[in-house]
Amino acid sequence: MAPNHYSALATVVLFLHALFIVWVAFGAVFTRSRPILRWLHIVSLIWGILTELTLWPCPLTLLENWLEQKAGVERYQGGFLFHYMDKLVYPDISATALTVVGVLVCAFNLAIYARGAWRVRPHNQRRTRAL
Questions:
Q1: In terms of DSSP H, where are the helices of the chain?
Q2: Which of 5, 11, 74, 96 has its CA 20 to 30 A from that of 83?
């Protein structure tokens, strides 16, 4: 395959990766009354937290780097968020600050789901558990 094909595929993966991050950050808006999407979003949030707090590499980052390497582009080091946020939005942002913000966004979304689940439980179940 020609290098420009790899470059085009890397760009597609880049956009998919960006869409996934938007999904993680704002997916709760789209999941109302859609249980399957809600559970997919919850799994995505947990994945987001784990990839931020552990050394697990994101498969999309690995794929993008591999495609860029095949296209002759020097692959970037570190995570997707740090690489692009540092260059495009917040120059010289620390990796720690970005990790904290990412985890807080995911935790906030999980709190929204927890609050909704708490409200849905029948009143009797809440009273019985409190006793």
A1: 3-26, 35-53, 59-70, 80-84, 95-120, 123-130
A2: 5
